[in-house]
Q: What sequence folds into this?
């Protein structure tokens, strides 16, 4: 019974952390809970994906313009996630393109003000997502969206497992402290099952192709600032979503 309760807590808190869906509780936020949350990151992504897919089906029923529907889907994703990862993307670009040393990059990334490079990165990532969604076949968009959000949240777990935290303190530090091999392996098994369920063998191929790419990105960031931060996790999540849509575009044409 305690394992079931921990699972429910982890799932609900993962939803509350990755979305704007309110999850009110008086649960103590410790390493055990944060580890369970990590296990449910891909499942929380699946929930977000179902919301996007449901919206896509609902809007398509009214025969709305496809470009308009795709724009609404991207806006909805931003709203559902509270622009959590986009904020990290902007901060990461501001910091890494500042051409400063490690300490100054981390300082720039912590600044709440957005710079030119950060603003441009937001514009570019949204335009690329819109272009990729518009290039996909209409009947493939829902499954592509579900796979996109599910896999991208798993790769947050992957990065937390593979790389250290770059700061001495920070909001994301507890996830790095609580990560262990068991949580990583369980999250991987769950994500493999979900990937196959969503897109069959093509989902597994996309999963496998992404792993070395994400690891290389993580290694570059580690060499630059000594590890991951919440901002760099958000940035890679955004890149991962674009990469998944691009791979779906290719595989749906095969």
A:
């Amino acid at each position: 019974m305690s394992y079931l309760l921990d699972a429910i807590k982890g799932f609900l808190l993962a939803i509350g952390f990755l979305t704007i869906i309110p999850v009110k509780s008086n649960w103590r936020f410790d390493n055990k809970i944060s580890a369970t949350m990590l296990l449910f990151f891909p499942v929380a992504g699946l929930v977000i994906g179902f919301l996007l897919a449901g919206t896509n089906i609902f809007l398509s029923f009214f025969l709305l313009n496809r470009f308009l529907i795709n724009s609404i889907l991207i806006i909805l994703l931003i709203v559902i996630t509270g622009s959590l990862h986009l904020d990290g993307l902007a901060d990461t670009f501001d910091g890494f393109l500042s051409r400063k040393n490690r300490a100054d990059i981390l300082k720039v990334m912590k600044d709440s003000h957005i710079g030119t490079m950060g603003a441009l990165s937001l514009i570019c990532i949204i335009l690329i997502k819109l272009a990729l969604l518009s290039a996909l076949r209409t009947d493939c968009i829902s499954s592509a969206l579900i796979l996109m959000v599910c896999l991208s949240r798993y790769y947050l777990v992957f990065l937390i497992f593979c790389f250290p935290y770059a700061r001495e303190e920070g909001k994301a530090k507890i996830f790095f402290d609580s990560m262990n091999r068991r949580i990583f392996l369980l999250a991987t098994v769950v994500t493999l099952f979900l990937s196959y369920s969503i897109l069959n063998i093509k989902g597994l191929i996309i999963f496998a192709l992404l792993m070395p790419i994400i690891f290389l990105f993580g290694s570059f960031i580690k060499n630059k600032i000594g590890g991951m931060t919440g901002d760099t996790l958000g940035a890679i999540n955004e890149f991962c979503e674009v990469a998944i849509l691009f791979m779906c575009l290719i595989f749906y044409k095969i």
